[in-house]
Specification:
The radius of gyration is 22 Å and the shape is rod-shaped. It has 2 helices and no strands. It has 96 residues and is mainly alpha-helical.
């Protein structure tokens, strides 16, 4: 049975770093896309306050703004953690 780790084309030493960088860039883009509604809600609350909208409505919108941003940030940080771990495992596998 052939060894699955041996490959006729050895990956370069920087391949795990490139994978990590690509995942980080894409993940950052997704983070920004998901965080955009949170920024919009912050702006909306600011504008609605000028029109003397009920404080309860403003509180609910502010809570949603913060909830979206916190969940997005935690998801992004966990994504970076998993991606970092995958890069470390890939470097160990390739003997780098």
């Amino acid at each position: 049975m052939e060894n699955q780790n041996s490959s006729p084309h050895q990956k370069p030493w920087y391949a795990p770093l490139v994978h990590f960088l690509a995942h980080t860039v894409v993940g950052s883009g997704i983070f920004i896309i998901i965080a955009t509604p949170s920024v919009f809600l912050g702006w909306l609350v600011h504008k609605l306050r000028e029109y003397h909208v009920a404080e309860f409505t403003l509180s609910v919108l502010t809570f949603l703004e913060h909830a979206i941003l916190v969940v997005d940030a935690l998801t992004f940080l966990s994504f970076l953690g998993f991606t970092s771990w995958a890069a470390v495992k890939e470097m160990r596998q390739n003997g780098h």
